[in-house]
């Protein structure tokens, strides 16, 4: 078996006593989104219970491509190294029409980038890393074999009915997070519906074990001689596992096409055509159809939605889990502020609105990839073939073949975002995800690190070449208002070698930017100050520390979810 | 061939052409698809192409 999930037993527990205070947070679903959120909350001191109907992490091929941004989220959760060890980085891809190459793309990858734009790792492995971390983390309990039956909103809490191997239980929670996936029971029990589009066209998805000499890149064949009329996608995963996705024709019978014999036959034809001489084994297979749909809101009373329970995006461009991890990242700091009482519940409206808008951004991109990968109508099928035929003669058409691999979403129009104060267009505007970048930490013996690692899970005030002492005062003032829901860190860069080797300051990390690489990467002026939200979005950029204004006002702005 | 990115406005135009033509083709009756495409090509030729360019494009479009 190519992945052997660890089975978790049921740990008995009692219903919440009616006279005791409700639990702060119950998360329904130990999928990757629920697990990441649980870690993000526990790291901020929030006591959290995860209820999972199964007894193990998921088995079989689902998300395999994680974006650079997702890896940043995972690094801030403390599992970055384990993901780096167990995943395969990649940057490029090729597409072929019949036997002719029509596209070769490379995702942006520049000097100073801390990690590759994309890595491949099986979702089962990814979930197992998160489960292992949860088991070693305080404040956080995962309860297996606990199926949530329904949720009922009461005055100051939500009642959660759970079916366990020892009978039913009722938990009372101040906040419930529905991270129970595409067929969310919580969503159903609140009688909520997602709306959107289901695309025509079905894909068979198979994982095979194959010692292939091919590089780690995305390869796609449209109408290949091995399987005329089909589209085949090939991705390498760790441990010689390859993911093969291929499209069925409108007349193919899915029942016949998902038999092992038929899948082997199709894949053999393709691998033979590639000149393969290595043996291979079929490990797992399934059938997939693309959907784009979402709830209208991700906040309903005391119930919040995240991941597939809130929204679905087609797999082409790999946005499902990547968007779910963004949800978890944003929800962790906003909900933690509410649970700790530093923020009011209105901050959660900002979570809901921002993440709904992010789904829209994902869908705009995913829709184009999907219409190209699985054209559902005669018109789209004809134009797709025309584009593929002409792509080598009209290079602009290659852009339509490009899979538009998932990147991070922005929150430029969020009320939390402090708008740009200057007219000059910048490459990094408020609301954008701040890219990770290699940095040199000056104090405590110089060492190489990354901006993301130095920011950690906190709100960061990054001051370029300004007075570290003044920055430290601002950081202390912000921390006094935002902690413990949100931590605050100061990062000061300096161009002067003498200064960076000076004494360490208690509230700030000093970064040696004598080569000015960080300033260039951020498209920043010296003296400028960047306030970076815990989930990595740029809250605002200010000409200098003074323009940051009163820390109380800035803290209020954050805790209220922005100016409305 | 590594693909240099085309200017954004060219990409937008290519996307617009792809989607507009796909949807237009889907909106005409099946029996009129060829007629529709020919009328469209004729209009484009009359309004935007000289004889030389039209001849070249006809030759190019023959290659599948
Ligand atoms: C074929 C395929 C390929 C994909 N490829 C990619 C990719 O390459 N990149 C990418 O980013 N995304 C990809 N995705 C999407 C990705 O798998 C999902 O977006 C991701 O799993 C969502 O995570 P989640 O935690 O929200 O939900 P899920 O992973 O579905 O987890 C939900 C959890 O809730 C549990 N649960 C359900 N109901 C209950 C209940 N009543 N009580 C208790 N527990 C319950 C389930 O057992 C499960 O463990 C792919 C999806 C598919 C199907």
Automatic annotation (TrEMBL), chain A:
<protein>
    <submittedName>
        <fullName>3-(3-hydroxy-phenyl)propionate hydroxylase</fullName>
        <ecNumber>1.14.13.127</ecNumber>
    </submittedName>
</protein>
<dbReference type="GO" id="GO:0008688">
    <property type="term" value="F:3-(3-hydroxyphenyl)propionate hydroxylase activity"/>
</dbReference>
<dbReference type="Pfam" id="PF01494">
    <property type="entry name" value="FAD_binding_3"/>
</dbReference>
<dbReference type="InterPro" id="IPR002938">
    <property type="entry name" value="FAD-bd"/>
</dbReference>
<keyword id="KW-0560">Oxidoreductase</keyword>
<feature type="domain" description="FAD-binding">
    <location>
        <begin position="24"/>
        <end position="366"/>
    </location>
</feature>
<dbReference type="GO" id="GO:0019622">
    <property type="term" value="P:3-(3-hydroxy)phenylpropionate catabolic process"/>
</dbReference>
<feature type="compositionally biased region" description="Polar residues">
    <location>
        <begin position="403"/>
        <end position="416"/>
    </location>
</feature>
<dbReference type="InterPro" id="IPR036188">
    <property type="entry name" value="FAD/NAD-bd_sf"/>
</dbReference>
<dbReference type="GO" id="GO:0071949">
    <property type="term" value="F:FAD binding"/>
</dbReference>
<dbReference type="InterPro" id="IPR050631">
    <property type="entry name" value="PheA/TfdB_FAD_monoxygenase"/>
</dbReference>
<feature type="region of interest" description="Disordered">
    <location>
        <begin position="400"/>
        <end position="436"/>
    </location>
</feature>
UniProtKB/TrEMBL annotation, chain B:
<protein>
    <recommendedName>
        <fullName>DUF2783 domain-containing protein</fullName>
    </recommendedName>
</protein>
